[in-house]
Design a protein that fits this description.
0% strand, mainly alpha, MetI-like fold, single chain
């Protein structure tokens, strides 16, 4: 008997593929997809499309032709100095912010017994970590400016003139001090959950084996917290490197950092150079992408330690 011809009829594999396709469509959570659609649209409009526009602008000259000459301007003294200043202030505030945030987290999490005080500290850090930009700059000018509240009080009450002693708010040190106002709370909010999840059984086991407090933190506590600490460093560096509103409102152009230089190139005045602005923006995107990716990887590792 000859086998029945299957010409013109769907085979078993085709039927299975069609059923699988139908099943995959049914498995999609359409309500959740529709609910998150505005977020994805926002990300495309505000992140993907501007990045694509930057790429298109960075590789063309003013006549519209393809060129790589725009990237040569990165090594000019002005851009190089701005990059070094941004990297320096980001590194300094990231290190100081992480160290102070770690100390604060250890104090609140391991030493503080009052739940009300602990809640007050955590609430203040939650608010201060989002307090930046022009309001923060105004607050520091009103407090530590030449006619600021603290400046005038120190001069009248104790005869101390901080500006005569060399302090200047519109300078690298002043900008560093201002950045620490939100860098420390951010580090605290990142490190505090890891400190809370440190096992008391581990500490007790180390003490039973004869370990001192210093040995416990050196060989047990800090190695467990290390990924979280490094993640905080990476995130604080990215946060300071990309900040423009606080720096511009506080110092104007007195401190030459990448965000202010970028703003000067795209705002349309005599320094307007759209191609250089696109290159600087791509440089910032690259730095932010690397540091935030590093933070996310370290965060996953720290969460694995705490399980």
């Amino acid at each position: 008997m000859k086998p029945q011809s299957t010409h013109g009829k769907p085979g078993a594999s085709g039927i299975r593929a069609g059923l699988a396709g139908t099943s995959s469509l049914k498995s999609i959570d359409w309500p959740a997809l529709l609910a998150t659609a505005p977020f994805f649209m926002f990300a495309i409009v505000m992140m993907v499309m501007p990045t694509a526009a930057l790429l298109a602008t960075a590789f063309v000259d003013k006549q519209g032709g393809f060129t790589l000459a725009n990237f040569a301007e990165i090594i000019t003294p002005e851009v190089a100095d701005a990059f070094m200043a941004s990297a320096k202030i980001s590194a300094v505030t990231a290190v100081l912010g992480t160290v102070l945030g770690l100390v604060l987290a250890l104090t609140v999490g391991r030493r503080m017994t009052s739940q009300k005080v602990k809640a007050a500290v955590m609430s203040f850090c939650g608010v201060a970590s989002h307090f930046s930009g022009i309001p923060l700059a105004f607050a520091f000018i009103a407090t530590l400016g030449r006619l600021g509240l603290v400046t005038v009080f120190l001069r009248k009450a104790f005869g101390i003139d901080i500006y005569a002693a060399g302090f200047e708010l519109a300078s690298f040190s002043g900008l560093t001090l201002t950045y620490l106002f939100f860098q420390v709370p951010i580090a605290f909010t990142i490190i505090m959950p890891a400190v809370d999840r440190l096992s008391t059984q581990t500490r007790e086991a180390a003490e039973m084996l004869g370990a001192t407090a210093t040995q416990y933190w050196r060989f047990v506590g800090l190695p467990i917290l290390w990924p979280t600490i490094l993640g905080a460093l990476a995130l604080l560096f990215a946060n300071a490197f990309g900040g423009v509103a606080t720096a511009y409102a506080l110092t104007g152009t007195a401190v030459n950092v990448i965000p202010i230089l970028l703003y000067a190139q795209i705002r349309g005045d005599v320094l307007h150079n759209e191609q250089l602005g696109a290159v600087l923006a791509l440089l910032m995107v690259f730095v932010m992408t690397v540091t935030i990716s590093l933070y996310l990887m370290l965060r996953v590792r720290s969460e694995r330690w705490m399980k």
